[in-house]
Amino acid sequence: MTPGEDSGTRVLGLIGEHLDSIRAQLTDEQYQLLLTRLRALADTPPDDSRAVRRAFQAVRLCLVPLPFDHPVREALDSVRLAGTATVSRPVVLRTRDLLARLTADPPPPGTAAIIAAVELRLLHAPALSAAEVRARYRGSVPPPELIRFADPDLGDRYPEFQFEPGGGAPYEVVLEVNRVLLADADPWGAADWWLSGNAWLGGGSPAALLGIRPDRELVGAAVALVEGD
Questions:
Q1: Cα-based angle 197, 200, 202 (whole degrees, multiple of 5)
Q2: Count of alpha carbons within 13 Å of 73, Cβ hemisphere only?
Q3: What's the pTM?
Q4: Predicted confidence (pLDDT) per residue in 70-93, tens digit
Q5: Largest Cα span, the chain
Q6: Whose CA is closest to 60, among 220, 183, 181?
Q7: 166 class by beta-carbon count within 10 Å (0-12 exposed, 13-18 middle, 19+ buried)
Q8: Residue 139, number of CB atoms within 10 A of its CB
Q9: Whole-number Å distance between alpha carbons of 126 and 69
């Protein structure tokens, strides 16, 4: 790490250095999602440290599928993005520089369709309607930590894995992990974490391990991603 460089800008620098191998290791869908998240980070106001943290976290989630021995994947473990403007500004500026190089050519066709396919895959997971969730809360407003998708055809949808079986309330560990993953800001990224294989947890999806693995392990896997532990 060069003098004055924080771990966040180091990760972005490594993305630029190893772009070809990143492209080779990710699927088309995963790579296009990474580009979309980078664009969102570049568009974030540099002095809004909370917004930068959320946008940078979304980029990190896109890099988790890389092999553990990949230089960028290894660098994720060292990231501790502090919520200060002094850190936020360089992260955003480095992202803009990176995108200026990546987007020198026109973006590949079909990018929007690929992103839509990611969201469609998540929407197809078993889910509860807004009315069903409200019924569990006796008409009260559900907690904001719950992952909620706005389906243009069916209305708000809440992925079912978040709730205990038999009409139960949300798992407490789900609400805790969703707070760590900032699911209120990026429900798609949080849902993808829950529903995708996770190397920290032996390859299984966190959602499938609810009630099987100890809660502290699920929280630890999320914290390890966000905090770089």
A1: 65
A2: 14
A3: 0.56
A4: 888 777 766 544 433 345 677 888
A5: 56
A6: 181
A7: exposed
A8: 7
A9: 34
